[in-house]
Write a structure and sequence with these properties.
Elements (H helix, E strand, L loop, with lengths): L11 H15 L4 E5 L25 H14 L3 E5 L9 H10 L3 E6 L6 H9 L4 E5 L5 H8 L4 H14 L4 E6 L8 H11 L2 E5 L19 H8 L2 H14 L17 E4 L4 E3 L9 E2 L5 H14 L14 H4 L3 H8 L7 H14 L6
Parallel strand pairs: 1-2, 1-7, 2-3, 3-4, 4-5, 5-6
Antiparallel strand pairs: 7-8, 8-9
Amino acid sequence: MTDHGPCDEVSDETYFRRFNAEIVRRRIPLMGSLALTHSCNLRCLHCYVSGDTRQDAEISTATAVRILDESAAAGCLYLLITGGEPLLRPDFSVIYEHARRLGMLVTVHTNGTMIDRDRLALFRTFPPVAVEITLYGATAATSEQVTGVRGSHDRCLAGVRALLDAQVPVRLKTMVLTCNRHEVKAMDAIATDLGVRFRQDAAVFPRLNGDRSPLQLRVPAADAVALEMTSERERDWCALFERQRHLESGDRLYGCGSGVTAFHVDPWGGLHPCIMAHHIGVDLNRVSFADAWRSLGADMAARRAPADLVCRTCDLKAMCGYCPAFFMLETGSETTYSAYLCELGHERMKFVSGEPGR
């Protein structure tokens, strides 16, 4: 009989719970995202970086590589490369390959219209966790109403099929908007036919430059939740609620991993807690990642939820997508909640609780 050590008696669930607790305790930046550019070849109606007129030079290849080296040394394992459209960067392949050679597990967000022979060869040689592509409609008419570019729908689907033919993992997603809501189920069907995962998000928010016009594209919360609640998705929400319903939120304003186990780097080298919290940051052009990470952690730890913040004691925080950075973009304050997110939470809870009529 083989002797077993003490670790053999620990279940996978217990192990990962302890592992995650240790990552949080030590503030290891396990997950990061890097926006290589805010430029894009599409002009999507809802895009949160559209109209970004910052004139500073985007980080160089050398700076991007240094940031990857330093973040990997600090413990980053999971990396999202995003934009804008990251494939517009002439050095995309160099940066992507470097991240993979560091051992990072990389996901790429792209609109799918720029997948070519060189990109396919790159992804075959250095496979990503996934290439995640956004569909904006099931038909060219609807999709291109959103993107503002003729031919983008066909190029996107051609890119998806080329990736799948090359056996590169693909995920599809969409933003649920007033102008494409009627095709969400058809987009889901396209993903099913292709054999890939599909997700949707109705949480449209203002642009980083303060432009609130994307909010006009929001679908009423009840309609958005009705679209997202397939039987599988409903089970996911039920499981999430059961896991988090009894968790103590304390007085930390940010209850997620932003600035604790996760970070975002913008195209100019700014280190932020997440992709939405651009009002909090440290310049990686001036300091090392390790020093910036410590500074960011102190900033986040100091942000406390006021006693009168209604979200602080709300049981539905797991259901709404509670996010002070989202609040900041929409209301101008981290502590003034988004009524729309709140509505989404209540509508999801109706499904989870089996409320009559649902």
